[in-house]
């Protein structure tokens, strides 16, 4: 199909969810729950099927397509338009976002059905889809930035969805503010591009950058832009040092955690870095920064994940860790591996979150894994799908996670920017990942159910039923399986978690993305290297499989065979365990280093000093003095006739005295 | 023998000062009113004194002082008519002529 025929379709894809959001947002309050669900699913589903249609008619030969929608900013030589762009990379993102998004919409119908704010929730979800699609389809950095900010807004609204809960409201604020810090870097990168390239259009910018020399000897403009872009990506994708908002974001409803904080929005940073690959390839130093941040984040977050007891917090740290993998891949210039992992991660992490939501739903809003256990008997379908996802993220053959993670580890080792250090840390992370994921699996689904006796306390966690304030806990009895509307998406995602990685066998995925990421003869060169070092690749593959197996074994020993051991180990480790359990006190450190100075500086200097001391004081004092003066003048006008006469006489006396003194002329 | 001008002016000043003092000190509106008349007449006296003085010196414009006095008396008469009417109205509404208690325009 020709681009002219696809064009109107592509432009409507982002606009469909926007229409859904508007309809539900404006009229949802009075509509029935059925009508709201129908509208939300219709518009989101339509977008998904149109994306499928476009994918079916997509031909790599005529890509990339550019579809101008409208003029936006025209200023001298500088111009920015509303223009959409479709190449292999945005096609992958388009399918992941609409596909996973649509499944999670379906799941939300079941999960949020009883919530008072149902229409609000569906409207926000659709709004999120609109902004996310704008982000991935944009043809220039500014339009991308609109989507970037918009998904931040949707994230804020959805994290604080149960805003009457103090913790949810402040988690929303935290996410928004931390993201602002990242956006600051992103914006400065955009300003630099405007100043030096005179354009924000992807094609123009990359064509300007392509002939420039690699900044190998020292840091220059491209390194600066690259690092600033990475600052933005670190905010949005929860990397060190800006990852702190993501664990708190788990205060939102679970479908939100699955859609925004696992599958799509948090990967926007990876997409942005991959999209800007031309800039990064010309700035090895910026690449190194990306790789180091990614590797460290992967390892760091994984270790925190070991000691968490809240099922969603474990998954949150796992997400941060997996995002670290993606940045590690981008950092060694293996962008297609990063995008590949982005895709498979969207499947299995979305599934993990949805299954965790199903568990939380089933046990009546409890999120503490210590109060679960033995659930495989009560919820067999959830157990089955979650098992698949767990094995997938741990990296077992032949599930999706194995292929993408292995691709990244291999590239971290073999790429010209790679090193065995990245690989070693990556494998260590894989081992830890496997360990904490199976820990979660064993604690939740095996052993005996430990939640029964704790139910009298009521579900202070909120969770699935948090918004029904005052209503008695609806699941006082045994845990139960979730309805089919929730299990359906789980099943589909489970299938994708199995087969999703197969597209990468034999480098097919990489070849598909090659037109986007190719850089001269590098492609051919890597082919030959690959052929030469097949043995090494299989060896490394075996090592990472071994790491995953060891993780499974260790966590089976500790959490299934002898569940009393972990407590003793924790006791033995003492302060180290406490540090990990308290997330290395990073939040406390940030509170001390950044939050406290800002809050106290604002209170003491800006509020008490400047606002009250200078601005208020100026206004108040001038008003006060005016009042004092008039207060005194008022006394002259007492209504007393004789005092008036006195003033007249005094005035006359002064006039006469003056005239006598000066002499009458 | 003619009385010197200074004597008239002195008397005029004393009358005027008495008027001013009465105006400031007295509480009764009638008395204050009379003080005003006293001041006016003190000024009138100086007018006529000057008129006579200039007349004696043969000045052509000597009569203007006399004319002024008539104007002042006419204005004073008009003022007395209006002022007494006001005083009666004040007394009817407030039942007092003490200016210290008449310090508000509204009732």
This entry's quaternary arrangement is heterodimer
Count of strand segments of chain A: 2
How widely separated are the two ends of chain A? 106 Å
Question: Going across the major beta sheet of chain A, what is the strand order?
Answer: 1-2
Radius of gyration of chain B: 18 Å
Indicate the percent of residues in helices of chain A: over 70%
Globally, the shape of chain A reads globular
Total strand segments of chain B: 0
- Describe the main β-sheet of chain A briefly: 2 strands, antiparallel
Order of helices and strands of chain A: HHEEHHHHHHHHHHHHHHHHHHHHHHHHH
Biggest β-sheet description of chain B = none
What does this 3D model show about the protein?
The complex is a heterodimer of chains A (665) and B (107). With 665 residues, chain A is mostly helical. Chain A has helices at 3-27, 33-56, 88-112, 118-137, 141-159, 166-197, 202-209, 221-236, 245-248, 254-263, 268-275, 277-281, 284-306, 311-331, 335-362, 375-378, 380-394, 400-414, 420-445, 484-499, 508-517, 522-532, 534-561, 565-573, 575-581, 586-636, 641-662; strands at 65-75, 78-86. In chain A, helix 3 (88-112) packs antiparallel against helix 10 (254-263), helix 6 runs antiparallel to helix 8 (221-236) and helix 18 (400-414) runs antiparallel to helix 19. Chain B is mainly alpha-helical and 107 residues long. Chain B has a single domain (5-94), classed as Helix Hairpins, CATH 1.10.287. In chain B, 76% of the residues lie in helices and 0% in strands. Chain B is built from 3 helices and no strands. Chain B has helices spanning 5-25, 29-56, 63-94. The model of chain B has no long low-confidence stretch (mean pLDDT 89). The chains are: A mainly alpha (665), B mainly alpha (107). Chain A binds chain B through residues 638-642, 645-646, 649, and chain B through 20, 23-25, 27, 32, 99-100, 102-105.
């Amino acid at each position: 199909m020709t681009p002219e025929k696809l064009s109107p379709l592509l432009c409507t894809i982002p606009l469909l969810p926007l229409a859904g959001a508007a309809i539900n947002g404006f009229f949802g309050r009075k509509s029935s729950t059925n009508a709201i669900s129908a509208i939300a699913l219709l518009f989101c589903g339509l977008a998904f099927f149109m994306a499928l249609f476009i994918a079916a008619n997509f031909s790599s030969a005529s890509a990339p397509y550019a579809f101008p929608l409208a003029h936006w900013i025209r200023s001298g030589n500088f111009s920015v338009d509303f223009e959409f762009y479709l190449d292999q990379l945005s096609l992958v993102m388009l399918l992941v976002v609409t596909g996973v998004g649509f499944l999670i919409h379906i799941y939300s119908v079941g999960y949020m059905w009883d919530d008072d704010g149902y229409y609000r929730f569906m409207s926000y979800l659709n709004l999120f889809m609109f902004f996310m699609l704008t982000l991935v389809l944009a043809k220039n950095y500014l339009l991308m930035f609109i989507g970037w900010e918009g998904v931040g807004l949707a994230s804020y609204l959805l994290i604080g969805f149960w805003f009457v809960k103090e913790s949810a409201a402040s988690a929303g604020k935290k996410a928004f503010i931390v993201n602002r810090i990242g956006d600051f870097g992103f914006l400065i990168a955009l300003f630099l591009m405007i100043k030096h390239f005179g354009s924000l259009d992807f094609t123009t910018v990359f064509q300007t950058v392509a002939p420039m020399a690699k900044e190998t000897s020292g840091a220059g403009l491209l390194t600066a832009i690259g690092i600033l872009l990475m600052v933005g990506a670190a905010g949005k994708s929860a990397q060190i040092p800006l990852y702190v908002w993501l664990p708190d974001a788990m205060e939102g409803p679970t479908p939100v955690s699955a859609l925004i904080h696992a599958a799509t929005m948090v990967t926007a940073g990876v997409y942005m870095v991959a999209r800007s690959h031309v800039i990064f390839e010309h700035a090895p130093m910026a690449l190194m920064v990306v790789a180091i941040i990614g590797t460290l984040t992967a390892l760091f977050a994984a270790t925190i994940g070991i000691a968490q007891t809240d099922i969603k917090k474990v998954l949150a740290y796992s997400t941060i860790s997996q995002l670290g993998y993606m940045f590690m891949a981008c950092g060694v210039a293996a962008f297609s591996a990063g995008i590949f992992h982005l895709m498979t991660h969207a499947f299995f992490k979305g599934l993990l979150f949805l299954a965790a939501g199903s568990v939380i739903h089933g046990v009546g809003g409890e999120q503490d894994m210590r109060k679960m256990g033995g659930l495989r008997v009560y919820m067999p379908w959830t157990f089955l799908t979650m098992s698949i996802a767990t094995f997938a993220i741990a990296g077992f053959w032949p599930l999706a996670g194995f292929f993408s993670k292995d691709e990244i580890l291999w590239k971290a080792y073999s790429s010209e920017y790679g090193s065995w250090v990245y690989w070693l840390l990556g494998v260590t992370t894989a081992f830890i990942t496997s360990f904490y994921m199976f820990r979660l699996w064993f604690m939740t689904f095996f052993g005996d159910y430990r939640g029964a006796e704790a139910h009298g306390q009521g579900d202070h966690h909120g969770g699935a039923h948090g918004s029904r304030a005052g209503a008695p806990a609806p699941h006082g009895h045994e845990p139960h399986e979730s309805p089919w509307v929730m299990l359906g998406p789980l099943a589909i995602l489970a299938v994708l978690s199995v087969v999703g990685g197969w597209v990468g066998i034999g480098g097919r995925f990489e070849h598909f993305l090659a037109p986007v990421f190719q850089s001269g003869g590098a492609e051919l060169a890597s082919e030959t290297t690959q052929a030469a070092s097949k043995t090494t690749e299989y060896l490394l593959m075996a090592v990472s499989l071994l790491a995953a197996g060891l993780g499974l074994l260790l966590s089976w020993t500790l959490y299934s065979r002898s569940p009393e051991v972990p407590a003793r180990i924790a006791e033995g480790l003492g302060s180290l365990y406490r540090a990990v359990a308290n997330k290395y006190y990073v939040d406390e450190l940030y509170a001390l280093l950044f939050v406290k100075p800002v809050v106290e500086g604002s209170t003491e200097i800006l509020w008490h000093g400047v606002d009250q001391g200078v601005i208020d004081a100026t206004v108040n004092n001038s008003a006060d003095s005016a009042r004092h003066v008039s207060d005194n003048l008022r006394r002259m006008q007492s209504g007393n006739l004789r005092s008036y006469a006195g003033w007249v006489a005094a005035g006359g006396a002064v006039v006469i005295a003056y005239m006598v003194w000066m002499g009458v002329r | 023998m003619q009385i010197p001008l200074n004597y008239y002016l002195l008397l005029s000043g004393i009358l005027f000062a008495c008027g001013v003092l009465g105006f400031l000190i007295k509480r009764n509106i009638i008395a204050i009113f009379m003080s005003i008349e006293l001041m006016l007449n003190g000024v009138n006296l100086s007018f006529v004194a000057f008129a006579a003085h200039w007349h004696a010196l043969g000045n052509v414009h000597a009569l203007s002082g006399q004319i002024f006095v008539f104007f002042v008396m006419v204005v004073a008469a008009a003022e007395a008519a209006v002022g007494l009417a006001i005083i009666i109205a004040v007394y009817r509404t407030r039942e007092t002529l003490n200016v210290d208690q008449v310090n508000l325009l509204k009732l």
